[in-house]
Write a structure and sequence with these properties.
Helix content: 25-40%
Protein name: AAA family ATPase
Largest sheet: 6 strands, mixed
Domain ATPase AAA-type core: 25-284
Order of helices and strands: EEEHHEEEEHHHEEEHEHEHEEH
InterPro entries: ATPase_AAA_core, Bact_Antivir_Def_Nuclease, P-loop_NTPase
Organism: Hominifimenecus microfluidus
GO molecular function: ATP binding; ATP hydrolysis activity
Radius of gyration: 21 Å
Strand order of the largest sheet: 7-11-12-3-13-14
Length: 353
């Protein structure tokens, strides 16, 4: 399953948007508060419920499945989904939808006064093929898996639901049987980068280095913890060729030296068949992907990369967007604009202009 198109009408900062996605890698950039994370969250909210067992659900139960996921992911005040409708004169209803591969689709609509009701329309095919939808948020989860899911089930914890979903995926045992050739390739690349292996014992994760022993995840840097999550989800079968992966700002708490290996890992995952959505406002992340898009020797399997820039222009509050095959082709590129501005400031200091 792949997400082919996202359509938003009067949803939060988006008045009208229709984004056609790549089956391989999608990079979303823009200034703060332009809606990068919103795009990831809304797509995740729509497709994550499809990975649950829905065979015995009535129409009302299916509606609540989607509504509760939207509430859990966005966490509006008092869980009123109507607060997600764009707040502008005359705007009192939102509709948003995803079109999926094999002519499947999900569409949701509700008004700004709705609390927990939405109009749901689905065109879905019954399939026995298993797949997962994974959201990696800005905070890593592998060092807190031991008790997080149980606490989330019992108490009101102020974490968006993708943290809970990720904790449950990390709690899965290792899958039986050998890894595929593609999985072994990705694992080999990652373990070469990390110079060690991931071990799980009694819901705790350790990083094992030959000749040095096992180290608790809390002792590792954030970058290694994030790569450890990827490795374990491949080993457990959660991250496979049928997976859709959303990764929100992978550069968070990351040494720039780790960016290239992380981008290489995502390229390897895309080659395996994973559809990837990445949000970023980091120069190194954008440019590493841009090099893959621009140079065939870095992209031997001819992956389709698409760069989406979100921006506001003039006095209008609405978010605009553009999509290109390379970051270099973007007209509105906040990352490069700031990079150029910094260079110009330095030149003025040097030459006194």
């Amino acid at each position: 399953m792949k997400i082919k198109r996202l359509t938003l009408n009067n949803f939060m900062a988006f008045e009208n948007a229709e984004l056609n996605w790549s089956d391989n890698i999608n990079i979303i950039c823009g200034e703060n508060s332009t809606g990068k994370t919103t795009l990831l969250k809304v797509m995740y909210s729509l497709v994550k419920p499809l990975s649950y067992n829905r065979d015995t659900l009535t129409k009302e139960m299916e509606e609540q499945l989607f509504v509760k996921k939207i509430q859990g992911i966005f966490r509006p005040d008092e869980m009123k989904i109507g607060r997600l409708v764009s707040r502008r004169q005359g705007s009192n209803r939102t509709t948003f939808s995803v079109e999926l591969s094999d002519a499947q689709s999900i569409s949701i609509g509700f008004g700004n006064r709705q609390e927990s009701h939405a109009d749901i329309s689905t065109e879905l095919k019954n399939t026995s093929e298993k797949y997962d939808v994974i959201y990696i948020p800005t905070k890593e989860m592998i060092s807190t898996v031991e008790h997080f899911a149980a606490l989330y089930d019992e108490y009101h914890i102020d974490f968006e639901e993708m943290y809970y979903d990720l904790a449950k995926l990390l709690d899965r045992p290792l899958s039986k049987g050998p890894n595929t050739t593609e999985q072994n390739q990705v694992l080999s690349n990652l373990e070469d980068i990390m110079k060690g292996q991931i071990v799980q014992k009694n819901k705790k994760f350790y990083f094992k280095i030959k000749g040095e022993g096992e180290f608790e995840m809390g002792l590792l840097s954030d970058g290694y913890r994030k790569l450890s999550m990827i490795i374990y989800m491949i080993l457990s079968g959660s991250l496979n060729k049928n997976t859709i992966l959303f990764w929100d700002e992978p550069e968070t708490n990351m040494n720039p030296k780790m960016i290239r290996p992380i981008v290489q890992a995502m390229v390897a995952l895309a080659q395996m068949g994973v559809q990837i959505f990445v949000s970023t406002h980091d120069y190194f992340v954008q440019q590493e992907f841009n090099m893959v898009a621009a140079y065939s020797e870095l992209n031997p399997k001819n992956l389709d990369l698409r760069f989406t820039s979100l921006y506001r222009e003039g006095k209008k509050h609405d978010v605009n967007y553009e999509m290109k095959k390379t970051a270099s082709d973007l007209t509105y590129n906040a990352i490069m604009q700031e990079f150029d501005a910094m260079y110009d400031r330095e030149q003025r200091i040097i030459y006194g202009e």
